[in-house]
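Q: Alpha/beta hydrolase, please. Structure only.
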Amino acid sequence: MDVLLKVLTVGGAAYAALLAIVFVLQGHLIYFPDAGREILHTPQDAGLAYEAVWLTTEDAVRIEAWYVPAPAARGVVLLAHGNAGNISHRLDYAIMFHHLGYSLLLFEYRGYGRSEGKPSEEGTYADARAAWRYLVAQRGVPPERIVLVGESLGGAVVARLAAAERPGALVLASSFVSVPELAAELYPWLPARWLARYRYDALEALGRVSSPVLIAHSRQDDIVPFRHGERLFAAAREPKVFLELAGGHNDGFLFTREAWREALGCFLAQHLPAGAMNSVPR
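A: Structure for Alpha/beta hydrolase:
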C-alpha cells in the first residue's frame, strides 16, 4: 500500500508539473514563427508585380505586407495565413487570385518573417485590423470589394475581423471551431479546455458575420477534423457555401487545384459587385 501511495503521489506530482508547463508554454504549441523566418521568394519570382509595405498596428508594432495588384481587379483579397511559415510561402495564393481577377494583400503576423514583435492572440487580431485599415483608408478600397480569406488559424483571425467590419465575402479554409475545442481533441489526456489561455473562437465570431461565407474543409484533414468545418458552416448565416476539399491539412494550397479554384471563383463572382474597381489612391 505504501508503494502504491508513493507511485500515485509521484505520478500525480509529475502530471501536475506537466499541466503547469503546458499552461505556461502553450504559445509554443500554437505559433511556429521560427519554422520560416527567412523570406524565400517574392511575387516577382512568380512573374507578378508587387509592392512591399510596412503597416503600423494600433499598438505600434510594424508588420510587413505585400500588395499584389491584378489588372482590372474586381476586388482585393486580404489573406491571413496559418500558424507556421510566412507570406513568402503563400505565393500560390497570389497566382490563383491573380488568375481569378483579384488583387491580394498578404500581411505578416507580428513575430513572423521580418515583422516586429511577438505573436499573441490579440496581436494577430490587431495585425489583421491594420491590414484592413490599409486597404480601406490608404488604398481607398470599398469594404464590399474586400474578400477576407483565412487559412487554418488565420480563419479565426479573419472571422473576428469580418464580425466587426462588413467585407464583401469571408472564406475559411481548413479552419477550426476554437483552440480549446481543437486542443481537447488533439490532447484528450489533458484538461485542455480548462488549460487553454488562447481562444481563437471562430465559431462565436462567425455567428456575428453578416457577409456571404464560404467554408472549405477536407475529410482527410489530419490536424483539424472535418467536423470543425461542418460546425462552422452550421453556425454561418445565409448566404453560405460549403466546399469539400481533399488531402491533408498541410498538403498546401488546396485551393489552387482547378475544380476548387473554379468553385471559389463562382462564389466570389456571385456575391461581389460586378465589374472592375475604379482606380484607387495610394
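A: Brief note, in case it's useful. Residues 2-25 form the longest helix (24 residues).
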